[in-house]
Amino acid sequence: MQMPRDSFPTDWSPPPVEFLNKPKKAPPAKKGPLEDLEKDPPDPNQKVELASLEELFWNMAGPSQQAGTPEIPSGGSQCYINNLDYLLQEKRMLVEKFSVSLQVISPVHPGETVFLPRRHPLPCFLDSSRLKPHSPLEELFLRSSLPEQLSFLHNGLLSNLYLHAADCPQPLLQWLFQLLTWPPETSSRAFGLLWDLSIDGLFRQPDEDMHFWCPSLQEVKKVFSSLGAYNPALYPQGPFQHSSRVLESEASLDSQDPPQEVALDIKLNYIYRFLILCLLVRPASYTDASILDLMELLCRAGLDVGLCLLPKSDLQQLLLLLLERIQEWPGKLQPLCCALSWVSDHHHNLLALVQFFLDVTPRGRQLRSQLSLVIIARMLGQQESLPFSAEKTQLALLSQQLSLMRPSSLRQCLGIETLPSSLGQYSKASAELDYKVCYLCHSLLTLAGVVVSSQDITPNQWGELQLLCMQLDRHISTHIRESPQAMHRTKLKDLATQTYIRWQDLLAHCQPQGQYFSPWKDI
Asked: pTM to 2 decimals?
């Protein structure tokens, strides 16, 4: 008895094979040394044979396959395997359904355009009108041109002239400070000589009559302007909103030139280190108003787009010293936070600004907490209604703002403009709006974590922290719906979960004795 066999369709034929159009490489044959130098020209009949083979397969295909398979153009550059345009309609819908969006929440802030790169540094002339030479070599240096004076610096002759002198002229120190904005080969020598002259003057002068030169606020601003910092008063819309003529006059650099992030970082670190030395030697060298302006200037410079991925240890140390040198504290805390909260309009840049300040001192933790609250209130449009009295604690103020950080509320704030009416544009605009909402909520939730971590939680604040945990779970965690097409929601969900666990751990450590803690208790 014969077993029944599966019926085989009579009109079956293999699908068209595109890869047959690509000529296969023949295995290398053993040739002599002379034959290896000569290559056979390609056979012109090879493409014709492959084309006829493809036509043969196509003619053998059934009518159903010819109707269901789209036309495939020849050529390896337009291979239909990796192109959505040549897929069937149902396959295309399947791919689009399970496609993953490339929009993810970046761990690095976008930065601001603060410094415009320059091709050539600005000239720095030494004011020698009031200087009297004490030697023929010094007289030659003072009468020389700028290139010749720079050769004195590069050859080490200035160290022989002024390093062990009784009194170093102040115009020379000012000139060396301005040279910190030049290329690294010049700025490194200028910084080394400026540092040596300043340290040498400390040991040669008595303590009761010590004279140490520190640059003024105007001189620091002049140095930043020489580095390419544009004036916000002249360019309120940013440097790229103006014509190319303005950019050429300000930057003197073509847009195709590579950026000089490393050189800029080296120059800024030289400036930061010398200012640190000035604050250590002369703690009262700057007034409170000058310190606030200087901190705002330094924070703007630290947010430059070319410096986002570079370490900022010198800047953090300088900001920490400036913060400790404020005389009227905490009276200057609120004006400082209000000024720093407007350094940038992007929430991620403001989050990076908060991280410029280390939490190793009480003032640093106090500034981080207060500045985070001000930034959250500004991003939510509640800065005018945010009270800063001592009656309410920072956890109570954060509790008022946390309820406004709900993704649906942020979507209403960001989606004020009318979305497109067409279906395709509406879907794309809605996905873009959803990404912006999650991005903003991620930054705000990180700032909320900074506020809580900067506090010394006591048993008296146990109820406020418990309320924050309830609001976090009620207003944020439960309103995030994860999707394979939106990985930014998953990252926001992870941050909310980690924050909730961290706050629960704080609750367990500061729990009042004799009180049972229940995270599901309705408050």
From this structure: 0.75
